[in-house]
Design goal:
Blueprint: H1 3-10, E1 18-21, H2 27-43, E2 48-52, H3 71-80, E3 89-94, E4 104-109
Parallel strand pairs: 1-2
Antiparallel strand pairs: 2-4, 3-4
Helix pairs in contact: 2-3
Length: about 110
C-alpha cells in the first residue's frame, strides 16, 4: 500500500468497499465467516474491507477469576496471517474511529492477477 493511500485510510478518508460484522459470534462461527467474506471480496476485486470484531466484554474489577477480553479482537489478525487468507491479504490495520475504532480492522487485499 502506498503512503498516500495509507494516510487516507488512517484518517478515515477511504471508504471500505465491503464489511462484515463478527461480534456476537463464537470462534467456530466467526472463522469460516471471515474466510468466506475475505475470499469472496478478493474474487470480486475489492481492495479495502472492514472487519468488525467488537471490543469484547467489559472486565469486572471485582471478578476473582480474570477473563480474556475481546477473543475475536485478538484472533482475527492471527487468522488473516494464516493460509488461505495470507495469500490475499496485503495489510491489516486498526480502523479509524469513524469506522469502528478499536473494535474493527481495515483489511487491505492484494490485486487480483
Amino acid at each position: 500500500m502506498d503512503a498516500k493511500a495509507f494516510g487516507k485510510m488512517k484518517r478515515g478518508k477511504l471508504v471500505p468497499e465491503g464489511r462484515i460484522d463478527l461480534h456476537g459470534m463464537t470462534l467456530d462461527q466467526a472463522h469460516p465467516a471471515l474466510n468466506r467474506f475475505v475470499m469472496t471480496s478478493f474474487s470480486r476485486g475489492l481492495r479495502l474491507v472492514l472487519v468488525i470484531t467488537g471490543k469484547g466484554s467489559r472486565e469486572d474489577p471485582y471478578d476473582p477469576m480474570p477473563r480474556r477480553r475481546g477473543v475475536l479482537k485478538t484472533q482475527v489478525p492471527l487468522w488473516l496471517k494464516l493460509p488461505p487468507l495470507a495469500q490475499v491479504v496485503l495489510q491489516v490495520t486498526p480502523a479509524h474511529i469513524r469506522h469502528g475504532g478499536e473494535g474493527a480492522y481495515y483489511v487491505y487485499l492484494k490485486r487480483q492477477r
